[in-house]
Amino acid sequence: MRIRKKWTDLAGTLEIRDGMMCSVSAADGPLVSFIADWEDDWSDYNIKVKAQGLVADADWGIAFRVQDAQNHYSWQFCNGSLMFISYVGGARTENAVKGQGEVLNEWQDFEVNVEGDTFDLYWNGDLIKTVSHNALEAGKVGLFNWINGGTALGENGGITFDDFIVEGEGIPGKLAVDSRGKLASTWAGIKK
Questions:
Q1: pTM for this prediction
Q2: What are phi and psi of 37, to 5 degrees?
Q3: Which of 25, 56, 152, 162 places its Cα 20 to 30 Å from the Cα of 169?
Q4: Could you tell me the CATH number of the domain that includes residue 154?
Q5: How many domains would you assign to the chain?
């Protein structure tokens, strides 16, 4: 297992608090953070993360095939639904939507299996949908979050993430960022 050390925030800010990655800024726009110390952009992999919303009307989930803030895919909870959303050339498109009531302060499991232009989207262990999209062929992986400007955030921000894991053929070892059992200072060192 290799722990990824460098993360880049394309917008917004993620910080380590209480051993978790926490979205601590509120801004109107996608706040994407991705693993920055990859030598290559991969196209096929499996990504898993635990996430929880701490404030109403926050969006959170997995970002993948991230090229920049204007070009990436996300599998996320958004506005009372689970959504696969594409950002291509800055245009936001909701490609798949399934209604899902908002649950705050409880861990939710997000997973996406990426193979070619086909993406299997899982939530809490259940396959929700298989979608296809071919605009972005490769890119980094990371976290997606969006908290509306002016939203009052708690001590750990508006969204927390834990147990981020990436696996796949050609990926050197299991890429994982696991905060459990780590002091915040250790997590901060991993992030830097």
A1: 0.79
A2: -100, 25
A3: 162
A4: 2.60.120.560
A5: 1
